[in-house]
Amino acid sequence: MKDGAQPTRERILQAAGKLFHRDGIRAISVDAIAEKAGVTKRTLYYHFRSKDDLIAAHLQARDEPNLTLFKRWFDEAEGDIAAKVAGIFRHLAQSARDAKWKGCGFLRTSVELINLPGHPALVAARAHKKRIEDWLSSLFAEAGAGDDALPLARRIMLLLDGSFAVVLLHRDPSYMETAADAAAQLIADSLSGARGNGSDLPGAASVG
Predict the structure, then answer these.
(1) Pair (42, 132) in one structural domain
(2) Could you tell me if 71 and 155 lie in one domain?
(3) How far apart are CA 158 and CA 162, in angstroms?
(4) What's the gap between Cα 105 and its chain centre?
(5) At 30, which CATH number?
(6) Total count of domains within the chain
(7) Angle CA(113)–CA(173)–CA(87) in degrees, nearest 5?
(8) pTM
(9) Given this model, what pLDDT does residue 198 score?
(10) Beta-carbon neighbour count of residue 33 at 10 Å?
(11) Do 72 and 156 belong together in one domain?
(12) Looking at the structure, do residues 110 and 159 belong to the same domain, yes or no?
């Protein structure tokens, strides 16, 4: 890698991210990204083979920061696991009150590329959502959800991504608050059911 290559690459990614967030991925040209980043198109193509690769790299760059933010919100929330997961939704509701909020970038990109299922950006988006699902599933498993850990994580993901769409449509963050309450109830009910069946809990004695 040439000296200074990483800062240049990051500058291109930051410029692309701002433009994609403002206008969407299809409306933004490579020329506009290069101009925003202060580089030539040749330099941009040195770091990214195509606009498609740049879009995918943009999402990949958001993967870890987004998951880390969710984990921080979870850790900072008070209460049991149901309240902590609900806390993620409540933080998102607060974010949605910002006039510049545009929902989930991974979902927005997926909608724009709906007719291109093999697009590298969709691969990145699916991987990101799966990481969140796996993280939630591990939390629920540790809390004693047993075989319901993964199904419960998927139900929470449906609430999460569904609320992204509905809040964006209505411009009403209270839908995210409602989703927070629904998530907390789902988790509480699931864990309560697992506790009623001692064989699903960690360390439960086997019978027979």
Answers:
(1) no
(2) yes
(3) 6
(4) 8
(5) 1.10.10.60
(6) 2
(7) 95
(8) 0.88
(9) 57
(10) 24
(11) yes
(12) yes
Token pair of 76, please? 């900072």
Same domain, 122 and 139: yes
Q: What is the pLDDT of residues 71-128, one digit of tens each?
A: 999 999 999 999 999 999 999 999 999 999 999 999 999 999 999 999 999 999 999 9
180 Cβ partners below 8 Å, 6+ apart? 86, 87, 88, 89, 90, 93
pLDDT at position 202 over 50: no
Ramachandran class of 116: left when φ > 0, alpha when ψ lies in -120 to 50, beta otherwise: beta
Cα-Cα-Cα-Cα dihedral sign, residues 166, 167, 172, 175: positive
Do residues 187 and 118 share a domain?
A: yes
Angle subtended by helix axes 5-23 and 51-76, to nearest 10: 80
| Residue whose entry in the numeric block shows the structure tokens 């193509």 | 45
Angle of CA points 143, 124, 105, to nearest 5°: 85
CA 3, distance to chain mean position in Å, is 33
Mean pLDDT score, 29-40 = 97
Q: What stretch of H or E contains 151?
A: helix 149-170
Q: Which amino acid is at 138?
A: S
CATH of the domain at 62: 1.10.357.10
Structure tokens at 97: 């009150």
